[in-house]
Amino acid sequence: MDRKEAFRIFEETGALQNGHFLLSSGLHSPQYFQCALVLQFPHFLEKFCSEIREYFYEEEDIQLVIAPAIGGIMVAQELARQLGVRFIFTERENDKMTLRRGFHIEPHEKILIVEDVITTGSSVQEVIDIVEKAKGYAVGVGAIVDRSEGQIDFGMPLFATVQVKAVTYQPDRCPLCSQKIPLIKPGSRKRT
Questions:
Q1: By C-alpha distance, which of 116, 140, 143, 145 is closest to 128?
Q2: Does 142 map to a domain?
């Protein structure tokens, strides 16, 4: 799938939104990718995930797919289905990413980490830390959208079906705030 087709899908489903958004990183942005609006359609979910699968499938014998809750869960489950392996997810407890619900990682298990949208990579890094602490082996990171502009190095391959130039602002230097454009808090992470 090329970038033009991917953006057509994002626009068609309303997933690419314009306004004044507070990202989970704390940064402000005039654009927000609400991937859930794309992923609610199984055929789009399957299409985007198959590209991630193809990138990693030949190189690695993946045994587990893991994602941070909540955005990455659907991506991880579909990728695990396509790969024929199990999937688990991390979630926040007392503002710290953790494994719950009896999920576990086996030592030396080959693991693909996935996310719906990567901007700063902080949630993915938290998952990498969990994998390493459990003595698992992270083989790479897959995402639907990468907004990091190549600024993130996880120390392993990163593949995204779409790479987008992210326009972000520190809250104290945000021109959208200066224009008094209302701030929208999308996503699932609680922010104050």
A1: 140
A2: yes
